[in-house]
Amino acid sequence: MNEEQQTMRAPDEGKDVLTASTNDTGPLSYTIGDLAKEFGVTLRTLRFYEDKNLLNPRREGMSRIYSRRDRARLKLVLMGKKVGFSLTEIKDMLDLYDLRDGQVTQLRVALDRFTQQINVLRQQREDVDQAIADLERTVAVVSGMLREKEKSEA
Fold first, then answer.
1. Over 60: is that where the pLDDT of 70 sits?
2. I need a surface site. Which of 33, 51, 61, 99 has the fewest CB within 10 A?
3. Backbone angles phi, psi at 151, to 5 degrees
4. How far apart are CA 9 and CA 43, in angstroms?
5. CA-to-CA distance for 73 and 81, rounded, in angstroms?
6. What is the DSSP letter of 103?
7. What residues have CB less than 8 Å from 62, skipping those under 6 apart?
8. Which run of H or E residues covers position 58?
9. For all residues of the chain together, what is the average pLDDT?
10. Using the 8-state DSSP alphabet, how is residue 96 labeled?
């Protein structure tokens, strides 16, 4: 398989984000367009993440060249956003990888933050369920009122 075919391969749809590693068998580098297409994000989004120091592509002239590490970090950023973490929280967790302590600190912090976020999401789900129940009761009352008005006008 040549380099162009490798960079045009399909995204890892079924792969767990947390198992992303720099030892994947895919290409060693990616263009901004490659990553945008693979992850369904805009070029502007990738440049924004670079501005926020979440990604650190190297430059070749005017082109950005992303490493496997950047790709793995992008997967983690998108997963973090999906479950409700702010970019600041995501960056703080990613930056712990640079401590070089065998990732023990990073894993402890991540586990604590993931557990906290699960609790936040559970509370949000309860709040949404309550709002839906309230709206369903209101719909039932308003529907009944409308039926009564329509009967009296008929």
1. yes
2. 61
3. -70, -40
4. 19
5. 12
6. T
7. none
8. strand 58-60
9. 83
10. G
Separation CA 96–CA 89 (nearest Å): 11
Closest residue by Cα to residue 105 from 96, 116, 113: 96
The enclosing H or E element of 65 equals: strand 63-67
d(CA 54, CA 110): 16
What gap in Å lies between CA 97 and CA 107, rounded to an integer?
9
Per-residue pLDDT tens digits for 87-139: 999 998 888 776 666 577 778 888 898 999 999 999 999 999 999 999 999 99
Closest CA to 110 of 123, 95, 124: 95
pTM greater than the 0.70 cutoff? no
* CB within 8 Å of 58: residues ≥ 6 apart: 64, 65, 67
How long, in residues, is the chain?
154
Gap between the Cα atoms of 26 and 3, Å rounded = 9
Alpha-carbon span 22 to 73, nearest angstrom: 10
pLDDT at 41: 96
